[in-house]
Q: What sequence folds into this?
């Protein structure tokens, strides 16, 4: 059984400050290190190659990783609260897959995030795809024998993801080669240098959606008591579900339009922080944003540094899976040893 909200596992301010410092260190390292050597002192001294590398190439890329990682972690925490299932996350629920289909459909139609129109319509198409996937998943689960239980939603999400991957693969075969290459990264997940327009648009999507989810965090806390108890306390569970799913789809749609399918960030980060800082979502969601940002920046740094070993840059989605998968298994094992039920 979960501990009451705000009890037991809450950490003192000093621990949270150390946590924040660690995240900031990872972000700074992401800017300072990469495939090409660059000196911060030379970059600050004046114009030159070092300044170009650090501030025009690495900094926007790290900013995208911060926004994407933070948004995915916040959405993962919101989904886990809503479904009361620690395995819920955008990738598993099919939201990411639907968003990827929407983004690739826009690209197949000739839009590009590098243009003014594309910078707006590609994320919007991803949002529509994520919303459609959400409607399908929730509709299938609602008509399952036992209603929209967490397990039914997760199984429906897995199937929607499989269908989405098949649609993207089929689309690659019927579009010109240059567009097929653009579509490929939506299957593997990349953090690349974004344009200023696309980064701004995605930041707005993620910021608005994340703030809205945080505003609903008090109601998410009440859901831990069960649907009937939440209804008795004045929470309209059905309305809350729709609001959270819509806001989460907006966040995921914006992110996927630039990064493709990146898994495990929304799964591992909330699960770990809930054990460290407790289940109060008013505190948990901001911490998830910070930790998700740090995790994705760190994984992207690993992907860049691996260039010297593999002579090619690894997709960051593969790195998050390699790191996040075993880490999540360790968390589950520790939870079993501690007698945890695995529920929120």
A:
């Amino acid at each position: 059984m979960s501990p009451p909200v705000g009890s037991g596992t809450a950490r003192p301010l000093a621990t949270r400050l150390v946590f924040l410092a660690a995240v900031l260190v990872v972000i700074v390292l992401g800017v300072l290190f990469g495939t090409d050597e660059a000196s911060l002192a030379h970059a600050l001294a004046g114009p030159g190659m070092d300044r170009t590398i650090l501030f025009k190439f690495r900094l926007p890329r790290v900013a995208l990783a911060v926004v994407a990682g933070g948004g995915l972690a916040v959405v993962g925490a919101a989904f886990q609260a809503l479904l009361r299932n620690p395995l819920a996350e955008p990738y598993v629920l099919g939201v990411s897959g639907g968003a990827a289909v929407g983004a690739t459909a826009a690209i197949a139609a000739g839009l590009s995030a590098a243009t003014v129109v594309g910078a707006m319509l590609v994320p919007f198409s991803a949002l529509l795809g994520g919303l459609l996937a959400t409607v399908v998943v929730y509709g299938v689960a609602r008509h399952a024998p036992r209603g929209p239980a967490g397990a039914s939603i997760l199984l429906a999400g897995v199937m929607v993801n499989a269908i989405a991957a098949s649609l993207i693969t089929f689309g690659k075969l019927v579009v010109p080669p240059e567009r097929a290459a653009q579509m490929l990264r939506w299957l593997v997940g990349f953090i690349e240098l974004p344009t200023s327009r696309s980064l701004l648009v995605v930041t707005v999507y993620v910021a608005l959606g994340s703030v809205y989810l945080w505003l609903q965090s008090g109601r998410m806390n009440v859901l831990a008591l069960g649907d009937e108890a939440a209804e008795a306390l004045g929470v309209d569970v059905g309305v809350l579900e729709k609001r959270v799913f819509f806001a989460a789809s907006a966040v995921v749609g914006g992110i996927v339009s630039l990064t493709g399918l990146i898994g495990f960030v929304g799964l591992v980060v909330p699960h770990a922080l809930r054990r460290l800082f407790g289940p109060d979502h008013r505190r948990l969601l901001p911490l998830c944003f910070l930790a998700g940002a740090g995790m994705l920046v760190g994984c992207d740094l690993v992907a860049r540094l691996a260039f010297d070993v593999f002579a090619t840059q690894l997709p960051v989605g593969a790195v998050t899976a390699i790191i996040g998968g075993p880490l999540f298994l360790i968390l589950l094992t520790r939870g079993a040893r501690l007698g945890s039920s695995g529920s929120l």
Observations:
- The chain has one domain: 13-337.
- Residues 1-10, 336-344 have pLDDT under 50 and may be disordered.
